[in-house]
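Standup notes
- HV: blocked on the assembly model, inputs below
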Amino acid sequence: MKTLYTFVFAFIFLSSSAPASAEHLPASSIPATDLIQPAELAANLKNASLPKPLILQIGFHNLYAQAHIPDSEYIGAAREEAGLKQLRDRVAKLRKDAAILLYCGCCPWSHCPNVAAAYGALHALGFSQVKVLYIAENFGDNWVNQGYPVAKGE
Amino acid sequence: MAVVRMIAVALCLASSAVSIANDNVLRVAPDFTRTDIKGEVFSLGAYRGKLVLLNFWATWCGPCLTEIPRFISWQRTFGPQGLQIVGISMDDDVAPVKRAYEKYQMDYPVLMGDPQLAERFGGVLGLPLSYLIDSKGRVVARYQGELDLKQLESRIKSLLPRQ
């Protein structure tokens, strides 16, 4: 399934002159095996013995500035070409087996315009250890209001 | 019978506790003044006396865009009775908001939000998010997520003065 997904994304990204077309991919297209639940991620972050992935927020700055996962980096909205470029630039020097975690939380999962685009872009580049935080409703309800760690600001 | 009474009292206390917890989010809408995307001064306080539906939205939010035509329709239908729709966009840039304003022919004030304004409303950490604010500036309902438009229309009608 993952191989097929990578192939499809690679085809889209390499053959299209308009990479922003990936924005139309629904979040549900991300394989369930590559999703992580908020409770699991919060527990992992709390566990000092576990290696921390590179955590990237690929949503909107107004959301990130209000609340984000501590140590996560703001990249930009992956639904837009500018955001995808930022994402590609950020991972350009990383090993393809680097652990990367993506999240957004702008709106209900089925409507999120960013996560599938970002996930697809990383797969097209050959990254094999990409996980996406499954945020069912929004970052407020599913992360902040659950009492999980939050940072504010730029 | 006494047991039934005790259970009833316990249920009442429990439900009022939930109500207080929910109300704790925001009781009175904060007043603020901004320039809207048409360049006109907007002040929420100026709408005291009206029923205000304050809608946080964004051009990238599918469910938000679905709601806009209905808001326009409500503004036309219920505006004369005292309803005022207000849109606060959480887009990072104003350009797509102006395009959407023209495209949908939005006939109510639209202004740009930011983290500071969002903070005053308890945070806008997901869209859509709407507040129904009564004529005295009290928050009577908070709706996080996609609206049940039929239900909200009934609520609006019930809060507007009868003609």
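- HV (later): unblocked. Chain B has five helices and seven strands. The radius of gyration of chain B is 18 Å.
- Next: hand off to the docking folks.
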